[in-house]
Write a structure and sequence with these properties.
Elements: H1 10-20, E1 27-34, E2 40-47, H2 53-67, H3 73-78, H4 80-88, E3 94-97, H5 100-108, E4 112-116, E5 122-125, H6 155-163, E6 171-178, E7 184-191, H7 197-208, H8 218-225, E8 237-239, H9 242-250, E9 254-258, E10 264-267, H10 285-314, H11 322-331, H12 339-359, H13 362-382, H14 388-401, H15 407-427, H16 429-445, E11 447-448, E12 451-452, H17 498-502, H18 504-508
Antiparallel strand pairs: 1-2, 2-4, 3-5, 4-5, 6-7, 7-9, 8-10, 9-10, 11-12
Length: 509
């Protein structure tokens, strides 16, 4: 690409623009003249569909043509750039650009460039105005209690949603551009006097290593900067809720927003992060603690219930009471497959139905999931392919898997379920224990930008204060400090003064 820094001729600049945008029919070049006598040549250059045409027409083009007639001819000739910039254009943001390559980059992102004949610099007029989706309720993180606004595909709108929740000058937004061809706008969000500086520098360093043609979604960045690409467990949290991003930043974490996607990345994470729901922090602590325990039990069921069925029926029927063992044997009478094959068929069918339900239109998808499960389950039992108890176990497992708040973690758990089933079919309960130990060792070695994945459970002595918000949640007034696992700066976030002001009796009431 040619670089022009000192050429003042309008035609030469426009020739370069036309050459670079050859066969780009959406490029608009509006040439015009200002002044009464011999007009001064100018040109507005932009891409149709990326700018606010009303803004450019009413506050730029109209002002340039009309107001220039009121100016003195000598003033137009002697200092036309300053006249236009300071007295004519009613645009909120105007920037001088000397490098035409920089001008082309701004045209591609939706800005309008004003070229002036005889002036070496051009003016960038802020004019982005493409069609956008309005703020709506998040689709993947629905809550009963809490904010109902979610991110959209417009980066500036998303950063403003977070800024509304963090009215602090220490809240920083660093704008980046990633993708050699896509030149996607990316924003790095953090609170300067809270964030762990080592984590922030590591995030910046990894982002700087990205060298790719296009960034279309946060998933592209996630895969390029994560610690272990071969792990089933996500090492970054994605969310479409501004309140989740704001709460994470208050804990000392870092967020990444990408233009054209409503999902944000939050870094770093622990296993505990994916077992919590945004609603946990809006409900009273007793209710939240009970729900978290229920969620933990459901997670255990979704992971181990089919494998326990396989292990007990195939290797350890003597562990059951006699009556239950006889009943189990009776239900399996006539089933031609071993327990593992029986469970694999039902679990595989469930995954097919789940995937089909996700890809189909929403009303049809919900129907396919419910009706398909009922029909296939009943038909399989009547055909004698599976036992009735197996259908019940698969149904409980499916329902339990929906209790995991994080979709990407739930997928990892679903894959692990098959690993435990396979281990149980070979070694019984010992196989389940062995597979669980392997997974546990993997989790213990896993890091998310230097943060141990099993924190704070893996370092109870060091991070004992963080246990107040893990498997259960203690009252909010007891969580005085920020999570130590995420940051070591400005650790105090709450000074509970009610007891001091009103006394102990008031709290007990």
């Amino acid at each position: 690409m040619t670089v022009i820094k000192h050429d003042e001729e309008l035609n030469k600049k426009l020739d370069i623009i036309k050459k670079e945008f050859k066969d780009c029919d959406d490029l608009i070049i509006r040439e015009f003249e200002v002044g009464i006598d011999k007009g001064h040549k100018m040109a507005l250059v932009y891409i149709d569909g990326l700018i606010d045409k009303v803004l450019i027409s009413d506050f730029a083009l109209e002002n340039l043509i009309i107001d220039s007639r009121l100016a003195q001819p000598n003033e137009i000739k002697s200092n036309i750039k300053e006249l236009i910039k300071n007295k004519t254009l009613a645009i909120t943001e105007i920037k001088e650009i000397e490098d035409i390559n920089e001008a082309i980059k701004n045209i591609l992102v939706g800005e309008t460039i004003l070229f002036i004949d005889g002036v070496k610099e051009c003016l960038m007029l802020s004019s982005r105005g493409w069609p956008t989706r309005s703020v709506a309720e998040p689709q993947t993180e629905v809550v009963i209690r809490g904010p109902r606004d979610g991110f959209t595909e417009t980066l500036k709108m998303n950063t403003s949603l977070v800024r509304r929740r963090i009215r602090d000058t220490n809240f920083k937004i660093k704008n980046l551009s990633l993708g050699k061809r896509s030149k996607t706008d990316v924003a790095l969000l953090y609170i300067e006097n809270i964030v762990n500086q080592e984590v922030l520098e590591e995030v910046k360093k990894r982002i700087d290593t990205i060298d790719i043609d296009s960034i279309l979604e946060t998933g592209n960045i996630e895969q390029l900067i994560e610690d272990n690409s071969f792990s089933l467990f996500p090492q970054m949290q994605y969310t479409e809720r501004p309140d989740v991003v704001a709460a994470s930043l208050y804990e000392g974490r870092v967020a990444i927003l990408v233009d054209n996607t409503p999902l944000a990345l939050v870094i770093p994470v622990t296993l505990n992060t994916f077992l919590q729901s945004p609603e946990d922090y809006y409900e009273r602590w007793i209710i939240t603690s009970l729900i978290r325990l229920l969620r933990l039990v459901a997670t255990v069921f979704s992971l181990f219930l089919p494998s326990l069925y396989i292990a007990i029926t195939s290797f350890h029927p003597d562990m059951l009471p006699t009556d239950l063992a006889l009943y189990l044997a009776a239900t399996r009478q006539g089933v031609p497959f071993p327990a593992f094959t029986e469970a694999f068929i039902m679990e595989g069918t469930l995954e097919f139905l789940r995937e089909a339900g996700v890809r189909l239109p929403r009303p049809i998808g919900a129907t396919i999931g419910i009706v398909g499960g009922l029909v296939i389950g009943q038909a399989a039992v009547q055909a004698g392919i599976v036992s009735p108890l197996m259908v019940i176990i698969v149904a409980i497992t499916a329902i339990s898997s929906f209790a995991t708040p994080s979709y990407n973690m739930a997928i990892g758990f679903r894959m692990l379920r098959f690993v435990f089933m396979f281990s149980a079919s070979i070694f019984g309960l010992y196989g389940i224990i062995l597979a669980f130990l392997v997974v546990l060792i993997n989790l213990a070695n896993l890091r998310s930008f230097g943060v141990p994945y099993l924190s704070p459970l893996s370092s109870i002595g060091e991070n004992y204060r963080d246990l107040k918000d893990t498997l259960i949640k203690l009252p909010i007034f007891s969580m005085k400090f920020r999570p130590k696992v995420y940051t070591n700066k400005d650790s105090v976030r709450l000074n509970y003064k009610r007891k001091k002001v009103f006394g102990e009796d008031d709290i007990k009431k």
